[in-house]
Amino acid sequence: MSVPEGTAAALAAVAARRPLLVASDYDGVLAPLVGDPGAAVPSPGTAEALARVAAADGVTVALVSGRGLEDLRAVSGFTGPYRWVGSHGAEFDGPLTGDLAGRRDALAGQLAPLVAAVPGARLEVKPASVAVHVRQVTDPAAATALLASADAVADPSLTKKPGKAVLELAVTDADKGSAVRRLRTEIGAAAVVYLGDDRTDEDVFRSLGPDDVGIKVGEGETAATQRVADPAAALAVLRLLGDLLA
Ligand SMILES: O=P(O)(O)OC[C@H]1O[C@H](O[C@H]2O[C@H](CO)[C@@H](O)[C@H](O)[C@H]2O)[C@H](O)[C@@H](O)[C@@H]1O
């Protein structure tokens, strides 16, 4: 799997910048999308490629996911010296305190009967949000109707986070763009490389500057300046970056 020429050139240009922040989304980038969120394991070789990037002097690797932090650590199996951001930025390095849990649980109580009525639909209760998944709903009309009903449940205090075959309703207004800006500031990064595949990653892509490299993984509208096809190509990007940084 090779990296598109323009993306390889952009990575070569950024590889000498220090400090360098290399941040990535998880699902759809480091792990292929599958029906069961609990079964979304990294593509073989990904852990090694990330570790090699993180071993370079002056380089920080961050994992920036919509998943809850504990879930992200468990499902990825990654153990490197990384910065961990979960719940779309609401969990920054550490878990959330419990004060949001009451609102989240009340929301889960509202959504549960809607989800239970649609065969194949799945409710995921996360630290700061509740996700309604329709990837395994075989009737497209039922999937669309369920997402619309879930959307209608959201009062203005909730943040809607639509994604791939999922709608999340979050009890915080955190987003990945703010999280990456915060990491950039903490690290004093001279440049940022970010890989993402979904709508919530667009907050990051929009926050990037001319010295950064935003890489959209897969199809769809994007503010990223680079694009690769799929998680296999994202792994090729990480491997190339590891070579350039070595
Ligand atoms: O920000 P990410 O790391 O990309 O996480 C986004 C959501 O990923 C998971 O859902 C997505 O992946 C599942 C497994 O492949 C798939 O079944 C589902 O359709 C996708 O939407 C995760 O379950 C969510 O909690 C994350 O917010």
From TrEMBL:
Its EC number is 3.1.3.12. GO terms for molecular function: trehalose-phosphatase activity. InterPro entries: HAD-like_sf (IPR036412), HAD_sf (IPR023214), OTSB-like (IPR044651), Trehalose_PPase (IPR003337). The keyword Nucleus does not apply. Its cofactor is Mg(2+). It catalyses: alpha,alpha-trehalose 6-phosphate + H2O = alpha,alpha-trehalose + phosphate. Pfam families: Trehalose_PPase. Pathway: Glycan biosynthesis; trehalose biosynthesis. Keywords: Hydrolase, Magnesium, Metal-binding. Removes the phosphate from trehalose 6-phosphate to produce free trehalose. Belongs to the trehalose phosphatase family. This is Trehalose 6-phosphate phosphatase. It comes from Geodermatophilus arenarius. The gene is otsB.
